[in-house]
Amino acid sequence: xxxxxxxxxxxxxxxxxxxxxxxxxxxxxxxxxxxxxxxxxxxxxxxxxxxxxxxxxxxxxxxxxxxxxxxxxxxxxxxxxxx
Length: 83
Hints:
Elements: H1 14-20, E1 28-32, E2 38-42, H2 65-73
Antiparallel strand pairs: 1-2
């Protein structure tokens, strides 16, 4: 747990810096949340991508709709690698 120095400085944990993309020279802003909590964020408003946004496009191309329908109907699909 970080402690405040007598000069009022606090070290932002590496995990938080990495998540927010904060590096030396990047300005940060502190604001009060609706519930009274203090929120730290980048002053330029840049937000890190969500964990789901990082996955977009990672599954690759799958079978076409026609191939899926043939598979669901029990037809012999023309899928690559199908026997």
